[in-house]
Amino acid sequence: MSVRGHIAAIRFGYGLRLGEAPPANPEAWLIEQLDRPAAPPEGLSLAEGIRLRMEDQAARRAGQETPRAANGRSALNDAVRNEGIAHAHRRLTTAQGFRERLVDFWMNHFTVSRRVGVIQPIIGAFERDAIRPHVTGRFADMVVAVARHPAMLVYLDNAGSIGPNSPTGQRRRRGLNENLAREVLELHTLSPAGGYTQEDVQAFARLLTGWSVEFTNPPVGFVYRTAAHEPGAKVILGRRFGDGEAEGEAALRFLAEHPATWRHLAVKLARHFVADDPPPAAVRALEAVLRETKGDLGATARALVRLPQAWDPPLAKFRAPADYVIAAARAIALPEDRADVIVSGMAALAQPLWTAPQPNGWPDTMAEWASPEGLMRRVDWAYNLAGRAPRADARAVAETALGPLGKGETATAMARAGSVRDALTLLFGSPEFMQR
User: Fold this and answer.
1) Cα–Cα dist 182/203, whole Å
2) Closest CA to 434 of 328, 303, 359, 278
């Protein structure tokens, strides 16, 4: 019985799906997912999402009925719902759980939230266009793609940031918005440990003026508005940058390849894949790979697989609600056409899809999720999910979900349960299933 095979599926992915066997060569199985990605998912394009949003807003302003889908629902709301179900379906059925976990890790690192209405129909495109293509590429390329994407430019208010001394600023008497510059420095690259100052934030914000969006006239998407750019040199962490869009990109790449950024990313990756309190040796190993490869995320992911601390002890990380819901759904082989159960489950357990409350994303430690109320919600949800598998072989589900990582006490309690539903609820409510 492969202990490491189950660890590979649980720690690096979302668990096995009922009927799947644990990999015979766990390390090679994980690395193959990096080397041979599955076909990229389809979904609502950026242009289509913007069009739906603009048509919906135009109808509301005119006091008319908003456009409808064939099923009679609002076309905009139906498209947003379908994007969420497609996201859940991919994680329910994927054979590349490690790659999908990396996508979700970087989506959380570069959080945008559909709490901002205009982002709702384009957040799926943000994942497909700015995150997914770069999860095994260069971190600097991901940073640039993220900063240019309308979802991020709108979410962090840079679309309306105008240089006070630019032609547009002089005419409109409007000024800087520092949100994007601040979060790139604080969350996306250096972290506060990088030693940047408020002067650096302001200089970077001036450099990013003009980075905006076009939602009305084609081609929609990112646009650089020269007339809104603040003129003059800007100095960021001692590096001098001139005017123009290219200089803004140069600054992003400079920050993405800063030594403080390597350290920040190494800590976050180790916290996610190894332990809430990352072992210093694991952090040093990941930091060295990032530094030596200048941010090769594929090489860094391979280094994660080679970390001894990522395998021992097993089940060292508490599952966040999204992880918990997906793992349970996979373990019972939830039918593919019911991926909506995953979306509703995430919301029921206080981690609604793409709706993080702040730009720093969802928390990644046990202390933030393991409250008594949160645990009770999990058991209630697990009972409802178990009701969808009344004829399941509970022992087969337990073998899929945990294998040799399951505890004898849990197996005994399941064997004594009065029904399959009760047995599965005990499994999903067990301490070991709560961990990964």
Assistant:
1) 10
2) 328
Query: What's the CA gap between 180 and 110, in Å, rounded?
Result: 11
Q: Whole-angstrom Cα distance, residue 236 to residue 205? A: 10
Domain total for the chain?
2
CA dist 212 and 163 (Å) reads 12
In a domain, 25, yes or no: yes
Same structural domain for residues 49 and 22? Answer: yes
Question: How does DSSP classify residue 289?
Answer: H
Q: Where are the alpha helices (DSSP H) in 117-217?
A: 123-126, 139-148, 150-155, 167-172, 179-183, 198-207
Does residue 138 lie in a domain region? no
- The amino acid at residue 329 is A
Q: Is residue 280 located within the same domain as residue 351?
A: no
- In this structure, the answer to whether residues 324 and 418 fall within a common structural domain is yes
| Chosen domain end from 270, 291, 310 | 310
Inter-residue long-range contacts of 173-181, CB under 8 Å, 24+ positions, other chains counted: 176/202, 176/205, 176/206, 176/209, 176/230, 177/205, 178/202, 178/205, 180/147, 180/152, 180/153, 180/156, 180/205, 180/208, 180/211, 181/205, 181/207, 181/208
Tokens of 273: 């894949």
- Whether 330 and 407 map to the same domain: the answer is yes
Does residue 290 sit in the same domain as residue 394? no
Distance, in Å, from the CA atom of 342 to the CA atom of 235, rounded to the nearest integer, reads 47
In a shared domain, residues 327 and 302: no
On whether both 296 and 331 belong to a single domain, the answer is: no
Closest CA to 222 of 211, 209, 234, 233: 211
Is the overall model pTM greater than 0.90, yes or no? yes
Residue with tokens 């996508």: 103
Domain-ending residue, one of 269, 292, 310 = 310
Instruction: For 264-293, write each residue's pLDDT tens digit.
Output: 999 999 999 999 999 999 999 999 999 999
Q: Which of 331, 326, 317, 333 is nearest to 349 (CA)?
A: 326
Domain that holds residue 284: 258-310
Q: Who's near 63: CB < 8 A, 6+ residues apart?
A: none
Q: Is-contact 67 92, C-beta < 8 A?
A: no
* b/e map 190-206, b = 16+ CB within 10 Å: bbeebebeeebbbbbbb
pLDDT tens-digit profile of 313-356?
Answer: 999 999 999 999 999 999 999 999 999 999 999 999 999 999 99
